[in-house]
Amino acid sequence: MASSLNWFEIPTKDLNRAAEFYRTVLGAELPIIDVGTEKIAMFPVDQGGIGGALCSRDGMEPATEGTFVYLNGGNDLAGPLSRVAAAGGTVLAEKTDIGDNGFIAVFLDTEGNKVGLHSMG
Asked: How many independent structural domains does the chain possess?
């Protein structure tokens, strides 16, 4: 098994609002696409990489507890963290050094999800 994770979904109440938040914070495109009978906003992924999406479906609720996802924060978390508040979110934990494993930070998104960021710089 190359990786124990192969897909993730972050629940939303308002897909368009959430997609705009993550576009702003990550500085990346999150296209909204049709998948069957629903729409999702896809996070960027390299060929063969781990993918994920924002979604809104029955039985999925934004949460601050439970499974926790760290998104790629790029080369330095200072950039994404500086855009969280302006995009409508709240920084819960500033950039924190975790030694040889880089840096982490935590924020609350516009939907009420607690999400992490990780970078090596």
From this structure: 1
Low-confidence ranges of the chain (pLDDT < 50): none
Which alpha helices (DSSP H) does the chain contain, by range? 15-26, 78-84
Please report whether residue 2 resides in a domain: no
Beta-sheet strand order (sheet of 70-72) = 70-72, 114-119, 103-108, 90-97
**Strands, E, within the chain: which ranges?**
7-11, 32-35, 38-42, 51-55, 70-72, 90-97, 103-108, 114-119
Question: What CATH number should be reported for the domain holding residue 68?
Answer: 3.10.180.10
Taking the whole predicted model, whether its pTM rises above 0.85 is answered as yes
Query: If 0-12 CB within 10 Å is exposed, 13-18 middle and 19+ buried, where does residue 71 land?
Result: buried
